[in-house]
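User: Can you write out an input/output pair for a complex, sequences first and structure second?

Assistant: Here is one pair. Inputs:
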Amino acid sequence: MNLNGSGPVLRRTTLALAAGAALISMQAHGADDAKTQAEGIIFERQQVMMQLGKDADALGKIAAGQLPPDRLAATTKAIADGARDSVEAFEQQVPGGHAKPEVWSNYADFTARMEKFAASADTMAKAGQTGNLGAVMGVMVEALPCKECHDLYREKKKS
Amino acid sequence: MKRQFRILTIFILAGGLLSAPVLAGAADKVRVRIAGFRQLGAAYKGVSDGLRSNDLARVRAASGQIGGASRTIYSWFPRGSGPQPGVKTAARAEIWSSAGDFRDAADAFARQAQAFQRVTAGGDLNAIKAESRKLGATCKGCHDSFRAASD
């Protein structure tokens, strides 16, 4: 076996193997990083939706007289802010969490509903700033179409 | 028969009296944990709101709170504070039955919280956003494995 001419070949092979390994490692690292970023985005939107749920619950309690009415302005504003945040939270189209695949396959309809929700929540917040509970109740159903959207676009929670 | 009934009643009452402090202790531990997580959730919201409005001071303050909480989070889960009759908690039993995995997850969160706090000291918003998502991913990782799904 003649090894005299094998030096450059061996070096080239080693370099090629090392480069390949580095590339695979970079790709794996990149995939890991992309997955981590995606999980972070999903978590952000889950937090936004969870806060919205809490604020909507608080508004229900104000309407039922279980919480003081002086919280009306702050609560309706929090809902309006949360609604706007929720629109932004779904701008990055990352599947996962409790979002049904239909969110992304019917994205135009989904975003139209979210925009309408944000606009209605804004209207409700303006009514809330006056402290008039009756005015808020008048627009509440339209401002909080939570179930309608959840039925279409959120996976049923496991019991 | 009457005597047996009396003995049974005494046993039930004694059992109730003995278990009451245990349940109260567990409920207190759960309350401490819930309070801690509420503060943590508020701080995380501070990060998100701060990033949306480019309010770096708010992000830094919130990252400090998260960093502080991350150092103590493991202590929010003492033995005896898990799911049990009479105690409402979203903490899953796996926290204690797979304690090593939970510790790893809590440590990963703490490491990322410190990394996030470090990056907020700079002014690179894109880097801060990227690290905040990594932080969110460590939160989600733990929630997915160790927190019961809420209604």
